[in-house]
Structure formats: structure tokens, C-alpha cells
Amino acid sequence: MSHAEYQTASLAPALAGPITIGSGMSSKPPAWAAQAIRVRQQQGTDGDGLRIAVTGGAGFIGSHTVEMLVATDAMVLVIDDYSHPSGEPLPDEVEVVLADCGSEAAAKALASFKPEVVLHLASKGGVQKAAGDPGDHVRASLASTVGLFHSAIKAGARRIVTASSGGAIYGERAKLPARETYKPAPVSAYGAAKRSEEIYVATLGLRHGTSTLALRYGNVYGPRQDGSGEAGVIAITCCRLLEGTAPRIHGDGKQTRDFVYVTDVASANVAAISSRLIGEVNIATGRETSVNSIVDGLIAASDQRVRTEFLPMRPFEVRRACLSPARAQRHLRWTATVSTSSGLKQTWSWFCKHHLALQTPQVSASVG
Asked: Which of 227, 258, 295, 311 has its CA 20 to 30 A from that of 32?
């Protein structure tokens, strides 16, 4: 599918008031999207809400999204192997299956749950890991994802929304921000795999009459992100500062990314579930921000005097990345609302509280 087809859903009246998210955070999906899910509950013959399966629902982006979905009265099934859990407990209403998304156990869970929508957020490996062993990455990530798509369609899902990557798929671009009409030009095995996932879901959707949408995320950051992996410069820098070690930047720090806050992304996920938009869409701010400015901002927030360590630039990483959110604004009625400065402050605050909780000894009452 070279170009997306678009239809606009009938939009119900907007809801008032924010949806409260755990850990003291508050965010708000587009009101029409939350209302559309609730309308489905009122229209359903069994009185149930929209049935949504979320892979990777216990993870960083997934846990935020699941909380928003539960707040709209949706019925949610989470399929997660818990290889990268966020550490935040999921709402009690959520059904959880511990399994790889492409496994037989996941297929059986989907067949039993009968989701109307499947949101695929599970992901394995990053740019460097995929580059180190592309074949293993294809087996562990791409093959598992395609298996999930097939299982979702067999289970009767009428819509599949999958997480993709804008920076990795567009590659190096002279003209930014990148638009969905640009020809994909990934420079990494990770980007090639993500583009393959997009092609697979679109092809299977066309064959079986299933609505599909790929969300091309910018660089997502915020509370609950894992700071121990290869990706996520903001989470990694927070962890290093709290551990008393110098921040590290690979390259000169002048490389740019489109940083988008996690609750904004979760809001976009909810909007995508309720929308009839198909094809691909960027989920980003449309702003370039240098890695240097991000790290400097976190150092200032930490009130530490520390010098950043500069390491060689990693291979297969793009120099500049910035994505146009115009299509999402038009068709999903979504826009990023959290500024970079506010997002950094909220993220640093969360990591500080999380670090303090880990350092504080737990006191148990003695029995006897």
C-alpha cells in the first residue's frame, strides 16, 4: 500500500475532564476517541465495552496506554512476555496472558478473547542489537510480529494498529520534518524490519478485509522507561545521574531527534484505535531537538556539576530525525501537548522518586 486511504469516523460529543494516570501523572486522549469507545459499549448487544488486545501492555508505552483504555471502559487483554515490564501494576480489570505475542499461547488467548481491535506494542531489540545479528532479530521480532498479525485476523479482529518507527524508516533526509509520503529509506536492520512489519500488516489487512494502521513514533520518552538498555538517551541519562556517574553521548551530541512524551503517545494510540484511518501516520512533535540540549537540561535539573563523556558515534544511526505530525493532527485529531521542557522535568521527577523508593529499605512488622 503506497498511499493511505482515509475516512473520518462519526465523532461523538467530547468528554470533559482528564483521565488520571498512575504515578501522579495526568493525560487526556482526544475526547472524541474516548467517547467513541464508550459509544461502542452503549451500542453493544452484550453491554460490554470495546474489546482490545494489547501486546507489550505491561511495558513502557503499553502500561500508559492500557490505563487510558481502561478509563474509557474498554475491555482489555494484555499479552506480554514480561521481558521489559514497566514495574507499574496493571489495573485489576485487565486480563493478562504471559506469552510471546507470536506464540501459540497468544493465538489461543486471542481466539478466546475475540478482540475487535489489536494494538501491537511489543518489541524486541534496538538498532544496535538488530545490526549485531539481523537474522536473530528477524526470528525474534519480525517473525513473531507477523505471527501475531495472522492470529489477530483469525481471531476476528476488525482492526490492527501496530507501533513502528519514524526515524528508523525514513533514514537520512535533507528535508525535514519527514512526511508519510516520503519513500522509506532505512539505514539499519531495525528500520528494515519495522518497514517489513508495515508491509506485512497492510498486505494481510487487504487480503482479509481488516483495517490496519502503522504508527511511526518519534523518540518516545517519559516515566517508566527502561534506563538500562541501548536506547532511550533520556532514561539512560537520568539513571546515570542518579547513580553518580557522568552522562554519555555517542557522537558530538549535535544529532537531533523528535522527542515525544509517553502520555502523548498513549493518547495517540487510543485515537488510532477509534479511528478509521489506515496506512501509516507519524506520531511526533515536528520539532528537532539536539541530544546535547537534552542531556544539558537533565544535568541542570539534577543540580549537579558533571561533565558529559563523548563516545564514538554508533553505526547505523541517523544524524537528524524529525517527523511531521500534520496527518495525525488532521485525521486523528491528535497533537502532542507536553513540551520538551515540561516532559524532561516530569521524567526527572519520576526517576528521582523511583530511585529513592529503590534505595529506601522496606520495614516489615515482626510477628510473634
From this structure: 258
Q: In a 3-state reduction of DSSP, which class is residue 178?
A: strand
CATH value at residue 211: 3.40.50.720
CA distances to 111, 306, 349 from 296, rounded to whole Å, are: 49, 10, 16
pLDDT of residue 19: 29
Give the pLDDT confidence of 310-366 residue by residue, as tens digits. Answer: 999 999 999 999 999 999 999 999 999 999 999 999 999 999 998 877 665 544 333
Residue 313: other Cβ atoms inside 10 A: 12
Dump pLDDT digits (tens) for 287-308.
999 999 999 999 999 999 999 9
What are the tens digits of pLDDT across the range 111-149? Answer: 999 999 999 999 887 888 888 898 998 988 999 999 999
* Cβ count near 226 (within 10 Å): 16
Three cell numbers at 96? 493478562
Dihedral-angle region of residue 209 (phi above 0 means left; psi in -120 to 50 means alpha; beta otherwise): left
Running DSSP on this structure, what letter comes out for residue 260? Answer: E
Q: Is the pLDDT of residue 23 over 60?
A: no
Range of the domain at 56: 26-218+262-284+317-338
Of the candidates 215, 230, 239, 55, which has an alpha carbon nearest to the alpha carbon of residue 125?
Answer: 230
Question: Which residues share a beta bridge with 283?
Answer: 217
Measured torsion, CA atoms of residues 240, 245, 247, 248, in degrees rounded to the nearest 10: -100
The number of folded domains in the chain is: 1
pTM of this structure: 0.88
The reply to whether 254 falls in a domain is no
Residue closest to 101 by CA, chosen among 117, 124, 85: 124
Q: How far is CA 206 from CA 25, 129, 201, 269, in A?
A: 39, 32, 9, 22
Indicate which residues carry an active-site annotation: 190
> Taking a C-beta distance cutoff of 8 angstroms, is the pair 324, 286 a contact?
yes
Bridge partners (DSSP) of residue 311 are: 250
In a domain, 137, yes or no: yes
Average pLDDT value over all residues in the chain: 88
Q: Is residue 333 part of a domain?
A: yes
212 within some domain: yes
